[in-house]
Write a structure and sequence with these properties.
The chain is α/β, with parallel strands linked by helices and 412 residues long. The protein contains 17 helices and 13 strands.
Length: 412
């Protein structure tokens, strides 16, 4: 709640999305001015007028960003009503910063007890705003920004990379989450082909120069695909050997996790120390398989390994792909799930024309046939792995995880 000196060290914001809902032109202009600051260059910021009421209306049908900034001139009771209404529509992990005209420690404590991340007294300076958002992610007790979603195939050729790329696209476009898609199939990766891009640099540059890896280097290696999706491409050449130690990807993943809300990694079908480490260390795992015996055997082996190494984590998500190939004997979906002791979360039919057209044109499924059942399934998978599979079913106090952590109850 205090002013800061322009000489204070303020950490740059990570690659987050922020939406501001302002009541006054003055505060809206301050946020607009902050957007031009060098510390904000990685953040995706939008400014709206209308205050808390506009925010509530906006999120009735849209996903919430990483940070919501609310300016309000309302009374304490009215502000509490607005926050309770907003909580009904907030996705897990969204942080709220409130700006008001009252410099009142009791109000401040009340808002903190409800899970609000910060309270600013308006009017405030540009650096006050940047500092308050930066501190949400740069403080010693702040949780990591990013969530790592690892996708792999039980066997080569099952379509794991295609699904991975489409899921990352859906997370960025439909859920409006800042996302990095990393292609780890260094010799044969297809992320450039699937997005019709030819990135001049990629992840290999970081892996072959581990002593130089830092946040600036990783930023330079990212290829911008859309406002919310960046690619970390594989070289897809065979002029070098890609034999790496088990911890080779640790530095890159740590940097991405500290700066990007969602990291989707396309792990090729191979078994090395680094591929095993990446799968075991991911927050969510998607395993793609086809309904034949080799896939069944491999899926069971991978899932058993994951269960042993991730005893305190959630189950991987099994996706059965290429179902219904003409004249091909297939293991029944129910039998496959029973054999690996895991029910599939998605079943994707064999659609050679749809997938072939998308691959040849360098497009995503949603661009080729947005009304297809396959596209609906991909969107559902994106919501599932980002924790938005059960959206807005019940009213809850804003930011329950924070309140639970602090041992606080909802203030009356």
């Amino acid at each position: 709640m205090n002013q800061v000196s322009s000489k204070e060290q303020i950490a740059p914001l990570p690659r987050i999305s922020l939406q501001a809902f302002c009541d006054s032109p003055e505060v809206a202009q301050t946020v607009q001015d902050a957007m031009t600051d060098r510390r904000m260059e990685r953040a995706h910021v939008k400014v709206h007028m209308g205050g808390a009421a506009a925010a509530i209306e906006a999120y009735r049908s849209s996903p919430t960003p990483n940070v919501i900034f609310l300016e309000t001139s309302a009374s304490r009771d009215e502000l509490v009503e607005h926050l309770d209404a907003l909580a009904e529509f907030c996705d897990p992990g969204t942080k709220v910063v409130v700006a008001g005209r009252t410099n009142d420690i009791i109000l401040y404590r009340d808002l903190m007890s409800r899970g609000v991340s910060e309270y600013l007294v308006a009017p405030f300076a540009v650096l006050d705003f940047i500092r308050s958002i930066s501190s949400l992610y740069g403080s010693s007790g702040a949780e990591p920004v990013g969530k790592i979603i690892a996708c792999t195939g039980a066997k080569g050729g099952v379509g794991a990379s295609t699904l991975t790329h489409n899921i990352a696209w859906s997370i960025a476009r439909d859920l409006e989450i800042q996302t990095v898609l990393a292609d780890l199939d260094l010799g044969f990766g297809t992320v450039g082909l699937d997005f019709n891009q030819d990135p001049p640099q990629g992840i290999a540059e970081a892996l072959f120069a581990p002593d130089r890896v830092d946040a600036n280097m990783v930023d330079r290696l990212l290829s911008r695909c859309s406002d919310r999706l960046s690619l970390l491409a594989a070289p897809a050449t065979l002029d070098r050997n890609y034999d790496f130690p088990e911890t080779a990807f640790d530095a890159v993943m740590d940097i991405l996790r500290a700066s990007t809300p969602c990291i989707v990694i396309d792990v090729p079908h191979l078994w090395t120390g680094w591929s095993r480490r990446l799968l075991l260390g991911a927050d969510e795992i998607i395993l793609v398989a086809s309904p034949d015996l080799a896939n069944l055997r491999n899926a069971k082996s991978i899932l058993d390994t994951m269960r042993t190494g991730r005893q305190n984590d959630g189950k991987p998500h099994l996706v059965l792909n290429n179902i219904g190939v003409a004249k091909r004997p297939e293991i029944a979906v129910s039998d496959f799930g029973k054999a690996v002791d895991l029910d599939p979360v998605a079943i994707i039919p064999f659609e050679p024309k749809l997938f072939g057209t998308a691959a040849n044109n360098g497009q995503m499924i949603s661009e080729v046939e947005p009304s297809s059942k396959v596209n609906e399934t991909i969107a559902e998978l994106a919501r599932l792995v980002t924790g938005r599979g059960e959206i807005r079913k019940a009213k809850r106090t804003i930011f329950e995880p924070l309140i639970t952590k602090l041992g606080l109850s909802k203030a009356s």
